[in-house]
Write a structure and sequence with these properties.
alpha/beta
């Protein structure tokens, strides 16, 4: 790792001891300025919640630091009050007139409830489209990240023209190649004086590249990460998780003697002005994670998983990419696989030509999006509309851009000729039966990756399945914890307050450490009344064991670079769990296992004590 002007800049940044930066008088003045009038009606007792009459220490520090620095990078763990912090930031930020708060779509129902809850105790900004308006207060627009991805949102920020942007769960903008992040970056390029406050429990799940651009926009020259893209890439080779890690080289200048380069980076980052981070868990209760072996795994299924890894789907279709092979093996570990079906009976020759033209069109769209993105040309859907305009007869004369795509004509002629539909083909219900038995025998959340799997388990167990959409988000929040539920990891493992449950079954273990941290924090969070939180993890195939191992490695990267203790790394792995060869994937046949549906002894037991 070589020397660079970026490294010199980072090393020269003033260090700050956050604990001694602000006084009790600063905290008292902040709360006095933000507290709602004494005659404001409180409904906390009706809601069964305690009154949030005082800010948490990390909330005070975040608001004061954002106001002083004019921006904020806040790696704040789950359960530490990021929601109220985001609500109050426009009130604390000097001169704020118009702010935009971005949140995940699945948190919108919870936002509506929490806004009224906190509004009874704190002075909140005017809510755009709200029922009341108070002169002199900032206006806050609340927008979901999904909406930012939609075609009509190509110029959304230009229409709102905020002087402050707040990102709750900021990792939703980690990919600069996505349409939503491109639009966000484009606005800051045009309006560089816009201030940014970015909050997330996990900024980087796989690489420091996940948030270097957010740090740059929030803190400018004061960013503790490199500003130049090629230097970010270079630092990543020494800091990011992976099989090949470069030696730290000049990055050792960030470290104390004997310190790992990731820990040195984390310590230096957290001591930078404008950075407010948590290090401890928000809940002082045990977390227990156990392996579960829903065996015996059918021999036919193991054979099909091997076939998938060899590049072939069970119905004989050959995979073109390794990612397809891995995805199919994970599906088969759950007892099914996805394929296309053709209910209209299109001939094979037409289907083959259709896929070839689609591939050519998608490739051209991808190459176009790799360049500089512009309004009305920054997503596949908008490029399609621009290509249509370019081939109109008579020629298009409007004010929107056109795109003369080379492959559009051929794709336009054939795209409606084939109408495939996705189909889930079930090979075995062994995992469905095991998960349903778990849900019937205790009360908890059954977490799944695939909607088809979730629906099948829920039906077998006689419990509800909560997938995507606003209705499901609203309904799962109304659950009282008196019955089991099945929930989509994608839809509900982030942001939700589900501490009415204390038991979890993860049927399809994710390979991402950040996803695990969020999932575990749904029930292992403040407000949990049970003496401990229990998690069973299905590890019956090598693919799921490897996914779990990858999640641990990525969680280790997060803990070392963010400083936030990861729940997944709270204790050691049981020596009985080991990675095996493909031919040894039958993990359930062990002398100690006498009851197929019985979970084994804990391999993760942690006393989640705050220090």
């Amino acid at each position: 790792m070589g020397w660079s002007p970026d490294l010199a800049r980072v090393l020269s940044l003033p260090r700050r001891d956050l604990a001694s930066t602000y006084t009790d008088a600063d905290f008292a003045a902040l709360e006095a300025a933000l507290r709602a009038p004494a005659d404001t009606r409180c409904t906390c007792e009706t809601l069964g919640k305690r009154c949030p009459s005082a800010l948490l220490p990390i909330q005070r520090l975040a608001l004061l630091e954002a106001a002083r620095t004019g921006g904020l990078l806040a790696p704040i763990g789950t359960g530490h009050g990021k929601e109220l912090t985001s609500f109050l930031t426009p009130m604390a930020m000097p001169g704020c007139r118009v702010a935009v708060l971005f949140i995940p779509a699945n948190l919108l129902p919870q936002f509506e409830t929490e806004w009224a809850y906190y509004g009874a105790h704190w002075r909140l900004p005017n809510l755009a489209g709200g029922r009341w308006f108070r002169a002199g207060l900032p206006v806050l627009h609340v927008v979901t990240y999904n909406k930012l991805s939609s075609q009509e949102a190509t110029d959304l920020l230009e229409r709102i023209r905020p002087d402050l942007v707040i990102l709750n769960e900021a990792h939703n903008l980690k990919d600069p190649r996505s349409a939503r992040t491109g639009r966000f970056l484009r606005y800051f390029e045009k309006h560089p004086r816009t201030r940014l406050v970015a909050l997330s429990g996990t900024f980087a799940s796989k690489s420091i590249k996940d948030y270097a651009h957010l740090s740059r926009l929030a803190l400018g020259e004061g960013s503790p990460l490199p500003l130049a893209h090629h230097v970010v890439e270079e630092w990543g080779t020494a800091l990011d998780p992976g099989k090949v890690v470069a030696p730290p080289g000049a990055l050792e200048r960030l470290c104390e003697p004997g310190e790992h380069v990731r820990e040195g980076f984390q310590r230096r980052r957290n001591a930078t002005r404008g950075v407010v981070a948590t290090e401890e868990s928000a809940l002082n209760k045990p977390l227990i994670i156990r392996p579960r072996y829903p065996g015996p795994v059918p021999a036919q299924l193991l054979t099909l998983i091997d076939l998938a890894h060899a590049g072939e789907r069970p119905d004989g279709e050959q995979f073109q990419e390794q990612l397809q092979s891995v995805a199919c093996a994970r599906q088969l570990s759950s007892g099914f696989y996805h394929r296309w079906r053709y209910p209209r009976g299109e001939p094979p020759e037409l289907i083959e030509k259709w896929f070839a033209q689609r591939k050519a069109w998608n490739k051209e769209v991808w190459e176009e999006l790799k360049g500089k993105r512009r309004e009305h040309l920054d997503s596949p859907g908008l490029l399609t509309k621009a290509a249509i305009r370019a081939h109109l007869s008579p020629p298009y004369e409007g004010d929107k851009p056109v795109w003369h795509a080379a492959t559009w004509q051929e794709w336009a002629e054939i795209h409606a000729a084939v109408q495939p539909e996705p189909q889930a083909v079930w090979v075995s219900d062994f995992l469905v039966k095991d998960a349903a038995e778990w849900a019937r025998s205790r009360v908890g959340i059954v977490w799944v990756e695939y909607p088809e799997l979730g629906e099948r388990i829920a039906k077998a167990a006689g419990v509800p399945f909560y997938g995507g959409g606003k209705a499901a988000s609203e309904a799962i929040l109304r659950e009282t914890g008196t019955r089991s539920v099945v929930a989509s990891i994608k839809a509900h493992a982030t942001g939700k307050n589900l501490q009415q449950f204390s038991r979890n079954l993860v049927v399809t273990p994710p390979s991402d450490g950040a996803t695990w941290e969020q999932l575990l924090a749904r029930t292992h969070r403040p407000g949990q009344q049970a003496p401990c939180v229990e998690v069973d993890v299905c590890l019956h195939t090598q693919d799921y064991v490897e996914a779990f191992a990858a999640a641990q490695e990525r969680a280790r990267f997060i803990q070392q670079t963010d400083g936030q203790r990861q729940k997944l790394l709270s204790a050691k792995l049981d020596s009985e769990i080991r990675l095996q060869s493909r031919s040894e994937r039958y993990l359930s046949a062990r002398p100690s296992q006498k009851t197929p549906h019985q979970s084994q002894a804990p391999f993760f037991e942690s006393q989640r004590a705050s220090r």
